[in-house]
Amino acid sequence: MSTETLGWWGVPIAIAAGTLRGSAPFLFVSLGECLTEKSGKINLGLEGTLLMGAMSAYAISYLTQSPWLGVLAAGISGMVLGAIHAWLSQRPKVNDVAVGIAMIIFGSGLAFFFGKPFIQPVAPQLPTIELGAWINQPAIQSALKISPLFIIGVAIAPAMQWFFKSTRWGLFIRAVGDNPAAARAMGIPVKLVRTACIMVGSFLAGIGGAYLSLYYPGSWTERISSGQGLMAVALVIFARWNPVQCLYAALLFGGAQAIGPALQSVGVDSYYYLFNALPYILTLAVMVITCSPTRTAIGAPGALGTDND
After folding, report:
1. Which residues, in sequence order, are CB contacts of 278 under 8 Å at separation 6+?
2. Which of 17, 23, 96, 113 has the fewest C-beta atoms lying within 10 Å of its C-beta?
3. Is the distance from CB of 228 to CB of 28 less than 8 angstroms?
4. Measuring CA to CA, which residue among 211, 226, 215, 207 is closest to residue 278?
């Protein structure tokens, strides 16, 4: 969206538009990681899952001419990587962080290898919902275009919070995440619950990748994720493992990502790279602020980061 005709008044509009468009990948990946961590496991490999989802969605959309089939393929590819991660991370004496790093390399490598033929072709994009038809101002109309996937992600956040607090399976997940030994004594299948959480969480991360390649920015390149999968881990900590707060944090990160392009559109180029680095600076700030052992423990599942038992 161009803000030249609106001048500086267009900057907040551009930031709002960028927030709505750029926050969805953060939202889907953070919700997936929140579900995974609620079960007591950490999946640092979601960066590779995000890339694999973006590539799969774009490839299937191009081959079938159906972007929604591409979205489904992205989720399935995420589940496959999640199943691998779940199996590896629950082997005896296996470290979650090491498995996550390995899965980043594995997922990224697969995406780059299979995605080479799809860098140039143009795939059908996801449709948009036009919320600005009531106003005769192209800039504002463009700002009020949103993807159905964003609406789905916003709906998932409160639904997931309700699931954790008000359902039997939500109680099982929280029990496994807080005290797997006690959960096992109650007859809860700990490995099965964790495997399901990791796979569903990876499914959501794959959907986040589909959003990147089929809507915003709407192409497939090997640099499309820009580290958003890793940022989402910090986002979950910042949100205190609360799905609704993950939504707010995703909007914050999406807004930070939109500031640079919005200022550039009105000719502010002096600190372009600094403004574009705001999401990474925000991630670092979140990690520094939350590094206190007492603060980090608030809301964290009790078994998170502990060795396999």
Report:
1. 256, 257, 259, 260
2. 113
3. no
4. 226
- Return the residue matching tokens 């004594």: 185
Q: For residue range 37-47, list pLDDT tens digits in order.
A: 999 999 999 99
- Calpha distance 103→51 (Å, rounded): 11
Residue by residue, what is the 3-state secondary structure of 112-149? Answer: HHHHHHHCCCCCCCCCCEECCCCCCCHHHHHHCEECHH
Give 3-state DSSP helix, strand, coil % of the chain, rounded to 5. Answer: 70, 0, 30
Separation CA 8–CA 143 (nearest Å): 15
Q: What are phi and psi of 242, to 5 degrees?
A: -115, 120
180, amino acid identity = P
The CA distance from 253 to 235, in Å, is 8
Contact 28, 74 (CB under 8 A): no
SS3 3: coil
- By CB atoms closer than 10 A (0-12, 13-18, 19+), residue 9 is exposed
DSSP one-letter string for 15-35 = HHHHHHHHHHHHHHHHHHHHH
Q: Give residue-wise pLDDT tens across range 160-200.
A: 999 999 999 999 999 999 999 999 999 999 999 999 999 99
Tokens representing 232 are 């989402």
- For residues 119-144, one letter each, b for 16 or more C-beta atoms within 10 angstroms of the residue's C-beta and e for the rest, the string is eeeebbbbebeeebeeeeeebbbbbb
